[in-house]
Amino acid sequence: MTAPNDAGEYGRLWAHDYDRLFENREDVSAVVAMLSGLLPGRRLLELGVGTGRLAVPLAAAGFTVTGVDASPEMVDRLRGRPGADAVEVVLADFTDLALGRRFDVVLVAFSTLFLLPDQAAQLACLRGARRHLTDDGLLVVEAFVPDPTRWSGGRHVSVGALDDTSAVLKLGTHDPVAQVIRTQDVVLDASGVSLRPNRLRYVWPSELDALAIAAGLRKVARTADWAGRPFDAASTSHVSVYGVADAAPAG
Questions:
Q1: What fold, for 9-146+202-244?
Q2: pTM of the prediction?
Q3: What is the sign of the dihedral through the CA atoms of 41, 102, 241 and 96?
Q4: How far apart are alpha carbons 39 and 59 in whole angstroms?
Protein backbone atom coordinates (compact mmCIF):
# COMPACT_ATOMS: atom_id res chain seq x y z
CA MET A 1 0.00 0.00 0.00
CA THR A 2 2.62 2.46 -1.09
CA ALA A 3 0.58 4.61 -3.47
CA PRO A 4 -2.96 5.97 -3.34
CA ASN A 5 -4.02 4.08 -6.47
CA ASP A 6 -2.18 0.83 -5.85
CA ALA A 7 -3.04 -0.72 -2.50
CA GLY A 8 -1.38 -4.05 -3.37
CA GLU A 9 2.07 -2.79 -4.35
CA TYR A 10 3.74 -3.60 -1.03
CA GLY A 11 2.72 -7.24 -1.30
CA ARG A 12 3.96 -7.60 -4.86
CA LEU A 13 7.36 -6.29 -3.88
CA TRP A 14 7.81 -8.01 -0.52
CA ALA A 15 5.63 -11.15 -0.33
CA HIS A 16 8.24 -13.54 -1.73
CA ASP A 17 10.69 -12.65 1.04
CA TYR A 18 8.37 -11.46 3.80
CA ASP A 19 8.33 -14.54 6.02
CA ARG A 20 12.10 -14.99 5.89
CA LEU A 21 12.61 -11.38 6.94
CA PHE A 22 9.90 -10.93 9.57
CA GLU A 23 8.54 -14.28 10.79
CA ASN A 24 10.40 -14.11 14.10
CA ARG A 25 10.48 -10.34 14.68
CA GLU A 26 8.74 -10.73 18.07
CA ASP A 27 7.41 -13.33 20.48
CA VAL A 28 3.95 -14.03 19.06
CA SER A 29 2.89 -15.54 22.37
CA ALA A 30 3.26 -12.04 23.90
CA VAL A 31 0.89 -10.66 21.25
CA VAL A 32 -1.64 -13.39 22.02
CA ALA A 33 -1.29 -12.81 25.76
CA MET A 34 -1.79 -9.04 25.56
CA LEU A 35 -4.80 -9.28 23.26
CA SER A 36 -6.31 -12.02 25.42
CA GLY A 37 -6.03 -9.75 28.44
CA LEU A 38 -7.52 -6.72 26.69
CA LEU A 39 -10.44 -7.96 24.72
CA PRO A 40 -14.09 -7.91 25.72
CA GLY A 41 -14.65 -10.78 23.27
CA ARG A 42 -12.91 -13.05 20.78
CA ARG A 43 -13.95 -11.66 17.37
CA LEU A 44 -10.84 -10.09 15.85
CA LEU A 45 -10.33 -8.20 12.60
CA GLU A 46 -6.74 -7.73 11.44
CA LEU A 47 -6.13 -5.00 8.85
CA GLY A 48 -3.10 -5.76 6.71
CA VAL A 49 -3.08 -9.44 7.65
CA GLY A 50 -0.21 -10.20 5.25
CA THR A 51 0.99 -13.79 5.35
CA GLY A 52 -0.85 -14.57 8.58
CA ARG A 53 2.17 -14.28 10.87
CA LEU A 54 -0.11 -13.12 13.71
CA ALA A 55 -3.55 -14.16 12.46
CA VAL A 56 -2.91 -17.89 12.40
CA PRO A 57 -1.51 -18.11 15.96
CA LEU A 58 -4.37 -15.91 17.19
CA ALA A 59 -6.89 -18.25 15.57
CA ALA A 60 -5.11 -21.22 17.15
CA ALA A 61 -5.42 -19.48 20.53
CA GLY A 62 -9.21 -19.34 20.22
CA PHE A 63 -9.89 -16.03 18.49
CA THR A 64 -12.33 -15.85 15.61
CA VAL A 65 -10.08 -14.08 13.11
CA THR A 66 -10.93 -12.20 9.93
CA GLY A 67 -7.93 -10.85 8.02
CA VAL A 68 -8.01 -8.18 5.33
CA ASP A 69 -5.23 -7.49 2.84
CA ALA A 70 -5.03 -5.84 -0.60
CA SER A 71 -2.25 -8.09 -1.87
CA PRO A 72 -3.11 -11.38 -3.63
CA GLU A 73 0.54 -12.41 -3.23
CA MET A 74 0.40 -11.99 0.55
CA VAL A 75 -2.96 -13.76 0.75
CA ASP A 76 -1.65 -16.70 -1.29
CA ARG A 77 1.16 -17.17 1.21
CA LEU A 78 -1.27 -16.90 4.11
CA ARG A 79 -3.48 -19.62 2.63
CA GLY A 80 -0.46 -21.89 2.34
CA ARG A 81 0.42 -21.52 6.03
CA PRO A 82 -0.52 -24.48 8.28
CA GLY A 83 -3.63 -23.58 10.26
CA ALA A 84 -4.71 -20.86 7.83
CA ASP A 85 -8.07 -22.54 7.23
CA ALA A 86 -9.13 -21.14 10.64
CA VAL A 87 -8.73 -17.55 9.35
CA GLU A 88 -11.39 -15.86 7.22
CA VAL A 89 -9.53 -13.93 4.51
CA VAL A 90 -10.90 -10.87 2.70
CA LEU A 91 -8.99 -9.47 -0.28
CA ALA A 92 -9.71 -5.73 -0.10
CA ASP A 93 -8.25 -2.28 0.50
CA PHE A 94 -8.78 -1.70 4.22
CA THR A 95 -9.02 2.08 3.85
CA ASP A 96 -12.45 1.54 2.24
CA LEU A 97 -13.89 -1.46 4.04
CA ALA A 98 -17.51 -2.38 4.69
CA LEU A 99 -17.90 -5.93 5.99
CA GLY A 100 -21.36 -5.29 7.44
CA ARG A 101 -20.48 -6.68 10.86
CA ARG A 102 -18.65 -5.65 13.98
CA PHE A 103 -15.74 -7.04 15.96
CA ASP A 104 -14.46 -7.00 19.51
CA VAL A 105 -11.05 -5.83 18.38
CA VAL A 106 -9.48 -4.38 15.25
CA LEU A 107 -5.73 -4.98 15.02
CA VAL A 108 -3.28 -2.93 12.91
CA ALA A 109 0.15 -4.40 13.65
CA PHE A 110 3.78 -3.88 12.57
CA SER A 111 3.45 -0.21 11.51
CA THR A 112 1.01 -1.22 8.76
CA LEU A 113 -0.80 2.09 9.24
CA PHE A 114 2.36 3.83 7.98
CA LEU A 115 2.10 2.06 4.60
CA LEU A 116 -0.91 4.22 3.77
CA PRO A 117 0.14 7.17 1.61
CA ASP A 118 -1.00 10.18 3.62
CA GLN A 119 -2.83 11.42 6.69
CA ALA A 120 -6.22 11.35 4.93
CA ALA A 121 -5.85 7.64 4.14
CA GLN A 122 -4.70 6.93 7.69
CA LEU A 123 -7.72 8.73 9.11
CA ALA A 124 -9.98 6.80 6.71
CA CYS A 125 -8.45 3.57 8.03
CA LEU A 126 -9.15 4.53 11.64
CA ARG A 127 -12.70 5.57 10.80
CA GLY A 128 -13.22 2.25 9.07
CA ALA A 129 -11.86 0.46 12.12
CA ARG A 130 -14.28 2.41 14.29
CA ARG A 131 -17.23 1.39 12.11
CA HIS A 132 -16.31 -2.26 12.55
CA LEU A 133 -16.00 -2.14 16.35
CA THR A 134 -18.66 -3.14 18.85
CA ASP A 135 -19.60 -0.41 21.32
CA ASP A 136 -17.14 -1.85 23.86
CA GLY A 137 -14.61 -2.91 21.24
CA LEU A 138 -10.94 -1.91 21.02
CA LEU A 139 -8.59 -0.77 18.28
CA VAL A 140 -4.98 -1.90 18.80
CA VAL A 141 -2.22 -0.22 16.76
CA GLU A 142 1.42 -1.30 16.85
CA ALA A 143 3.99 1.06 15.30
CA PHE A 144 7.54 2.31 15.54
CA VAL A 145 8.46 5.69 17.02
CA PRO A 146 10.41 7.74 14.44
CA ASP A 147 14.07 8.36 15.27
CA PRO A 148 15.31 11.63 13.70
CA THR A 149 18.92 10.84 14.70
CA ARG A 150 19.10 8.11 12.03
CA TRP A 151 19.12 10.69 9.26
CA SER A 152 22.02 12.87 8.14
CA GLY A 153 20.93 15.52 5.67
CA GLY A 154 17.76 13.57 5.08
CA ARG A 155 19.62 10.41 4.05
CA HIS A 156 20.62 7.10 5.61
CA VAL A 157 22.86 4.28 4.38
CA SER A 158 23.57 1.02 6.17
CA VAL A 159 24.61 -2.57 5.49
CA GLY A 160 22.02 -5.29 6.01
CA ALA A 161 22.67 -8.99 5.51
CA LEU A 162 26.23 -9.77 4.44
CA ASP A 163 27.86 -13.13 3.71
CA ASP A 164 30.26 -14.74 1.22
CA THR A 165 27.69 -14.81 -1.60
CA SER A 166 25.44 -11.79 -1.12
CA ALA A 167 25.04 -8.37 0.45
CA VAL A 168 22.16 -6.04 1.17
CA LEU A 169 22.56 -2.27 1.19
CA LYS A 170 19.80 -0.29 2.91
CA LEU A 171 19.29 3.19 1.50
CA GLY A 172 16.79 5.73 2.77
CA THR A 173 15.61 9.32 2.44
CA HIS A 174 13.54 11.29 4.93
CA ASP A 175 11.14 14.17 4.30
CA PRO A 176 10.34 15.57 7.77
CA VAL A 177 7.66 17.93 6.43
CA ALA A 178 5.59 15.23 4.73
CA GLN A 179 6.71 12.71 7.40
CA VAL A 180 7.68 10.31 4.63
CA ILE A 181 10.51 7.80 4.68
CA ARG A 182 11.49 6.16 1.40
CA THR A 183 13.75 3.12 1.55
CA GLN A 184 15.44 0.87 -0.97
CA ASP A 185 16.94 -2.51 -0.13
CA VAL A 186 19.57 -3.20 -2.79
CA VAL A 187 20.30 -6.93 -2.93
CA LEU A 188 23.51 -8.04 -4.63
CA ASP A 189 24.10 -11.75 -5.23
CA ALA A 190 25.06 -14.24 -7.93
CA SER A 191 21.87 -13.52 -9.86
CA GLY A 192 22.69 -9.81 -10.12
CA VAL A 193 21.15 -6.75 -8.49
CA SER A 194 17.55 -6.51 -7.29
CA LEU A 195 15.66 -3.64 -5.68
CA ARG A 196 13.03 -3.76 -2.96
CA PRO A 197 11.55 -0.28 -2.36
CA ASN A 198 9.21 0.88 0.38
CA ARG A 199 7.49 4.10 1.41
CA LEU A 200 6.27 4.94 4.90
CA ARG A 201 4.20 7.94 5.97
CA TYR A 202 4.94 7.79 9.70
CA VAL A 203 2.72 9.11 12.49
CA TRP A 204 3.95 10.36 15.84
CA PRO A 205 2.10 8.84 18.84
CA SER A 206 0.53 12.21 19.66
CA GLU A 207 -0.70 12.56 16.07
CA LEU A 208 -2.14 9.05 16.22
CA ASP A 209 -4.10 10.07 19.32
CA ALA A 210 -5.49 13.10 17.47
CA LEU A 211 -6.45 10.98 14.44
CA ALA A 212 -8.15 8.53 16.78
CA ILE A 213 -10.22 11.34 18.32
CA ALA A 214 -11.25 12.47 14.83
CA ALA A 215 -12.31 8.90 14.10
CA GLY A 216 -14.52 8.66 17.21
CA LEU A 217 -12.03 6.83 19.40
CA ARG A 218 -10.29 7.53 22.71
CA LYS A 219 -6.94 6.32 24.01
CA VAL A 220 -7.21 3.61 26.65
CA ALA A 221 -3.58 2.51 27.08
CA ARG A 222 -0.11 2.66 25.52
CA THR A 223 2.85 0.40 26.19
CA ALA A 224 6.30 0.23 24.65
CA ASP A 225 5.79 -3.28 23.29
CA TRP A 226 3.62 -6.41 23.39
CA ALA A 227 5.25 -7.48 26.65
CA GLY A 228 3.65 -4.44 28.34
CA ARG A 229 6.78 -2.47 29.20
CA PRO A 230 6.06 1.17 30.07
CA PHE A 231 6.12 3.66 27.21
CA ASP A 232 8.53 6.55 27.77
CA ALA A 233 10.79 8.99 25.92
CA ALA A 234 13.30 6.24 25.14
CA SER A 235 10.77 3.86 23.59
CA THR A 236 11.37 2.95 19.95
CA SER A 237 7.93 1.43 19.40
CA HIS A 238 4.47 1.43 20.95
CA VAL A 239 1.30 -0.62 21.21
CA SER A 240 -1.63 1.80 21.53
CA VAL A 241 -5.15 0.78 22.52
CA TYR A 242 -8.25 2.83 21.73
CA GLY A 243 -11.85 2.42 22.78
CA VAL A 244 -15.04 3.74 21.24
CA ALA A 245 -15.69 7.33 22.29
CA ASP A 246 -19.46 7.16 21.74
CA ALA A 247 -22.11 4.65 20.77
CA ALA A 248 -22.75 6.11 17.31
CA PRO A 249 -20.57 4.82 14.43
CA ALA A 250 -18.06 7.35 13.15
CA GLY A 251 -18.40 8.62 9.60
A1: Rossmann fold (3.40.50)
A2: 0.90
A3: positive
A4: 14
